[in-house]
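can u do me a favor
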C-alpha cells in the first residue's frame, strides 16, 4: 500500500477516532443528564408506593375499627335482648300463676253460688200468699248478687291476664327473633373480622392506645 493511500487511511482513521470521542462525550453527557431524572423517578415511584401502602393500611385499619365497633354494639344489643327475654319470661311465669289462682278462685265460688241460687229459687216456691219481700228473701237475693258480682270480676280479671299472657308470649317471640338475627349478624361480622386478621398481608392488632397497627407477615 503506497504513500498517498496510506496517508489517506491514516487521515480517515483520525477522523473516525475524533468522531467516536465526540459521540462518547455526548453519550456520557446525556447519561449524566438522565441520571438525576431516573433517580427522581425512582424516588417518586418509591414514595408513591409507600403512600399507597400507607393508605391501604389506613383503610384496612379504619374498616377493622368500624367492624369491631359494630361487633361490640351488636353484642351489647344481644345481651340486652337476653335480659329483656329473661324479664318477660319471669313476667309470663307470674301471669300464669295469677291465671291459675284466678281459675281456682272462680271454681271455689261456683258451688256457693249454685247453693245460694238453689236456696233462693226454693224459697220462691212458697204459696203465692206467702211470697212477700221479707228479710230472708232479701238476704238470699243479696247473697246471689254478691257471688255473681265476684265471679264476674274474677272472670274479667282472668280474661285480662290471659290477654296479657298472649301479649307477653308474642313479645318474647319477637325478642327471640331479634336475638337470632343479632346472633347471625355477629357470626358473619366475626367471620369477616377473623378473615381480616388471618388472611393477606394486612394483619393488624389492637395496641394499648386503642388504634390498630400492621403485623409483619
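np, heres the sequence
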Amino acid at each position: 500500500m503506497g504513500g498517498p493511500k496510506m496517508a489517506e487511511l491514516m487521515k480517515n482513521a483520525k477522523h473516525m477516532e475524533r468522531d467516536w470521542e465526540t459521540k462518547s462525550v455526548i453519550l456520557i453527557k446525556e447519561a449524566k443528564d438522565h441520571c438525576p431524572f431516573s433517580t427522581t423517578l425512582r424516588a417518586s415511584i418509591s414514595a408513591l408506593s409507600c403512600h399507597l401502602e400507607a393508605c391501604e393500611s389506613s383503610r384496612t385499619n379504619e374498616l377493622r375499627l368500624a367492624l369491631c365497633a359494630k361487633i361490640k354494639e351488636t353484642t351489647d344489643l344481644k345481651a340486652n335482648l337476653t335480659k329483656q327475654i329473661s324479664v318477660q319470661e319471669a313476667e309470663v311465669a307470674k301471669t300464669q300463676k295469677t291465671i291459675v289462682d284466678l281459675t281456682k278462685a272462680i271454681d271455689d265460688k261456683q258451688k256457693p253460688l249454685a247453693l245460694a241460687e238453689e236456696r233462693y229459687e226454693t224459697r220462691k216456691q212458697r204459696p203465692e200468699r206467702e211470697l212477700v219481700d221479707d228479710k230472708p228473701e232479701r238476704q238470699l237475693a243479696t247473697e246471689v248478687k254478691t257471688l255473681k258480682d265476684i265471679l264476674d270480676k274474677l272472670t274479667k280479671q282472668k280474661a285480662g291476664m290471659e290477654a296479657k299472657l298472649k301479649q307477653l308470649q308474642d313479645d318474647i317471640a319477637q325478642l327471640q327473633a331479634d336475638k337470632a338475627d343479632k346472633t347471625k349478624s355477629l357470626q358473619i361480622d366475626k367471620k369477616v373480622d377473623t378473615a381480616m386478621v388471618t388472611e393477606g398481608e394486612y394483619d393488624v392488632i389492637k395496641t394499648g392506645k386503642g388504634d390498630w397497627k400492621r403485623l409483619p407477615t
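Residues 73 and 153 are 47 Å apart (CA to CA). hope that helps!!
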